[in-house]
Amino acid sequence: MDYQQIRLSTDDKIATITLNRPERLNAFTETMQAELLDAFDVIDGDDGIRAVIMTGEGRGFCAGAELGQAGGDTFNAAARGRDASKPNRDGGGRVSMRIFELKKPIIAAINGAAVGVGITMTLPMDIRLAVPDAKIGFVFARRGIVPEAVSSWFLPRVVGISKATEWCYSGRVFSGEEAGAAGLVTVVPADELLARATAIAGEIATHAAPVSVALTRQMLWRGLTFDHPMESHKVDSRAIQALGAMADAKEGVTSFLEKRDPQWTLSVADDLPDVFPNWNPPDFS
Q: What are the DSSP calls for 233-272, one per residue?
């Protein structure tokens, strides 16, 4: 796919997705949605990519849904040519669910305004860095709608239910500093943002076994849905048994004992074991 509203670049095992509508503060559109979904497929299919960074071009990260094209009908499915007699999946939710299923760790480098879907789509990302004066807001109640992009599930798990309700009920815009105090982001000076994100991604890409990281990511996120710790114990046990018999486990121990850098050989695309035999999320209907 030729991208018009994002850029995808790769350097030293790290992919960077840049939202690229700076004249609109990278406002989210259906085109951007389709391009992001395609980019995540490309990233998951490339074993040369070990970690991902997402940021925004210009002075904003993402100012939320593009409101200037359809105006008051922006969120009206029928007015936008959709069949309103049946449920329509929200576009931000498609992106969030694809990020949730991503096999590579992903870091948000929030360089400015992150409002509406501009912040909710970062919630299933693994690490969020933000500049101190970033403008962040779960503004849905001020637009006559409700939180989207699966944020009603992710946000309380990230910051707790009390902070989530305060932000969502009021719809107010707040600073990166406040977001940092609540644990939503780690605050980083603007001139260090991308360097810090690259350093974290580089640490993962350079030293960690890619299949181990991919499986760990599934274990941590999917584990949030379990009703009892025994379910995680079962998954842990399956994963240790599966990976323990594979080449990277032998290499990890041998390289440690020989005091050298490991040479990982397993492929995320081909060698990721299935340790979730009952994992079958329902289809949207």
A: HHHHHHHHHHHHTSHHHHHHHHHHHTTS-------HHHH-
Q: In angstroms, rounded to a whole number, what is the distance separating the alpha carbons of residues 49 and 15? A: 6
Closest CA to 92 of 126, 59, 52, 119: 119
> For residues 251 and 265, is the Cβ–Cβ distance under 8 A?
yes
Question: Which tokens go with 18?
Answer: 């840049």
- The number of C-alpha atoms within 13 Å of 70 and in the hemisphere containing its C-beta is 14
pLDDT digits (tens, 9 = 90+) for 140-185: 999 999 999 999 999 999 999 999 999 999 999 999 999 999 999 9
- Pick 208-271's CATH classification: 1.10.12.10, 3.40.50.150, 3.40.50.1980, 3.40.190.10: 1.10.12.10
Domain ranges of the chain: 6-204, 208-271
